[in-house]
Design goal:
Elements: H1 4-16, H2 23-39, H3 41-52, H4 56-82, E1 85-87, E2 96-104, E3 107-111, H5 119-130, E4 134-138, H6 144-157, E5 163-165, H7 170-178, E6 183-187, H8 190-202, E7 207-210, E8 216-219, H9 224-239, E9 252-256, H10 260-275, H11 287-296, H12 300-303, E10 306-308, E11 312-313, E12 318-319, E13 322-325, H13 332-335, E14 342-348, H14 353-359, E15 366-370, H15 374-383, E16 388-391, E17 412-413, H16 418-424, E18 426-434
Parallel strand pairs: 3-4, 3-6, 4-5, 6-7, 8-9, 8-15, 9-14, 13-14, 15-16
Antiparallel strand pairs: 1-2, 2-18, 7-17, 10-13, 11-12
Helix pairs in contact: 2-4, 2-5, 3-4, 3-6, 4-5, 5-16, 9-10
The structure holds nicotinamide-adenine-dinucleotide (NAD).
Length: 454
Amino acid sequence: MGTVEERLGEMREAFRSGKTKCEKWRRSQLMALLALVREEEEGIFSALNRDLGKHRAEAFRDEVGVLIKSINFALSSLKQWMAPKSVKVPLVSFPSSATVVPEPLGVVLLFSSWNFPIGLALEPIIGAFSAGNVVALKPSELAPSSAEFLAEAIPRYLDGAAVKVFLGGPSVGSQLLEQRWDKILFTGSPRVGRVVMAAAAEHLTPVILELGGKCPAIVDSIGSSEQKVAAKRLVAGKWGPCCGQACVGIDYILVERQFASTLIDMLRRTVKSLYGDSRNLSRIVNRQHFMRLEGLLKDPSVSASVVHGGRFDSDNLKIEPTILLDPPLDSEIMTEEVFGPLLPIITLEKIGDSIAFVRDRPKPLAIYVFSNDEALKKRVVAETSSGSVTFNDTMIQFAVDTLPFGGVGGSGFGRYHGKFSFDAFSHEKAVMRRQFLLDFPLRYPPWNETKLRF
Ligand code: NAD
């Protein structure tokens, strides 16, 4: 195995050898990653089931399927991404030409989180390898079966000198952060994000922070013909991804007071039809998080606001989909990221008031808007700030390779996915080419007034 320093030394050596710069190597690693995801599908399903009780269909939709799509997109785009791009040059430099040449950064460190422990570990590797880097991966210790799966499967499929998995908890994270890396991509909490950024500052290492926050869904009073689809998408956006333990999942809903009871009826019926059987719902990752979620309902003014669900099964770490109507805005459930199956609904006089509500709080990773009102949609895009805005659906933006994925403000910074991942792990080098012809004397001293504005 070796120490962190020894393993890092091996990775530096692999990068210095230059092999990762060839298109052939990059392509072979992407193909190997594709083979890993396809051939080890059963191993992935069972790890996700052990860690989170994820159903194989959910595991395919949110992790395996997304990865296959992303790898295929990278394979079909790689040549184009790697090609130097010619840029215009000003007349003053005539004759000349200039290109922007992407070059790999070197050895990059990836911290992945436990809620999509396979998807969020492998997705950044697609970008890092496409851009020709070497990777150190630190999976979350809170999803141990997935972490062990990655540590066992990755060296069987990928170039072992160019990707290494570091198992362990915060102490291993700290050891890794003491080293110098060429880039760090961290997925996790704002608290640890600060630790990562402070450590990176020591070495002037650039970072991408993929953090969380409270993602609102603004639900306008939509027509009855559209309510069925809207309800399914809202319910799937709250309870579908890992039982609400998702950074881009809905945290709370904003709705006009007069539409609230219709919305609650819609949600109740849909929750029963989609998640009436609790086997369709993932479980809470561990007892500590289960107790944290239980604690959010302890306050009597919060528990009194429960209008649906509220049952906790501590033996199986399962929580019933739970809807709360107007819990106090200063209660923990409205000030902290919920990251679980509890859904507060906040009523407003006018749906337009949702803009000020969102703006008064930290910038979210995602905003969802269900509406047919074009003016409201325009206002949300123009007057709020968030990692993404999605109209009339939830979560789907995550799987679109041509959109950047990342936060802003409190939800993090930097972006990845598709070409944005390639760019995130590349340095864009400016390359300028000149000849010895035409050397203008005006650019050189001795200075005089005629040279002032040439
Ligand atoms: P966390 O911040 O507690 O842990 C993340 C990683 O950091 C783990 O690998 C852990 O071992 C390591 N770590 C913890 N303490 C450390 C320390 N002191 N020094 C070095 N390393 C340390 O994350 P979490 O609470 O398990 O994850 C949930 C959070 O992640 C939520 O806020 C969620 O919104 C966010 N998240 C964001 C995204 C995204 O893509 N933006 C995706 C998933 C989750």
